[in-house]
Predict the 3D structure of the following.
Amino acid sequence: MELKGNRVGPLGFLLCLALMAVIAFATVGGCREGPDKLILGTAFAGWVAEDSGLPGEDSLKLTQALREALGIPVQVYAFDSQTELVRALGAGRADIAVLGPYAYVLAHDTVGARVILRSATAGWSGTPSQVIALASSRFTSVADLAGKLIGFVDPASPGGYLFPMAHLIRTGLGPSFDPALVVFLGSEDEVVRAVIDGRVAAGACPEGALARALASMPGVDDALVVITETPPVPGLTVAVRAGLDPALADRVKQAIQTTVGSGEGRLAWLALTGTGGVVEAQNADYDVIREMCDSLGIDVEVLAEQ
């Protein structure tokens, strides 16, 4: 006897297969707590081998330590440029990025990337610039430099021109400052010497340059004073893409902090980045870059590739 009501035709069979696939996804794939892997993108040299494009020894040490901390595989991918890395964050082709500070500003302002950490060495997580003058000049404020010749390192130097010039414009000289009163001297040491010799009324250089220059010029320690100092400028930055789950982003931050805090992870991070660790960062830390670009009329995308 044939039970016609139990027969299943070709269409019904296909519908059953589709239903089984949906059930399998809901009971297995749909319950995942996170992605199968995370892509860590960078455009800095040294993270992958030039000949094969495969992660180098230090990259493997770092990603293995991150995998152990996160419970999720982390794969390094090297992009050809900082702007390509920014586009990858926007397109979801990179989950985490190790990038320069200008590229981070571009990534945040164009594709919504979120900063989680920035590099730090010996407790310093940013570098300010200083504007110096002779103590005998009696200059006490930026306004005192109006109409005076000021020495800088060179037009492309962030700490020797871009940030101190923008800071001077914003804090007393104003946008009408005469460019003819700017002189480029070629090196940090030469800026210090020009101030001491009286060839310029004031000079700008990154913090630390003054101490290094004075070390080779005994007897002039008390001859110079710092008139003003820029806010610290962040260095190498770790950011995540806009769409990464905030809870997972926080786990990534904690994993990186733990990994680079000691042992093989710390040595690998030092070899890859030249920095000794990381500290927590906020988007507002990078306003100094936005203000500089605004004051000098510079496109941050241009700086990102330098």
Q: What stands out?
A: Residues 1-6, 11-33 have pLDDT under 50 and may be disordered. The radius of gyration is 27 Å. The chain is about 40% helix and 20% strand. The chain has two domains: 38-124+234-285+300-304, 129-230.
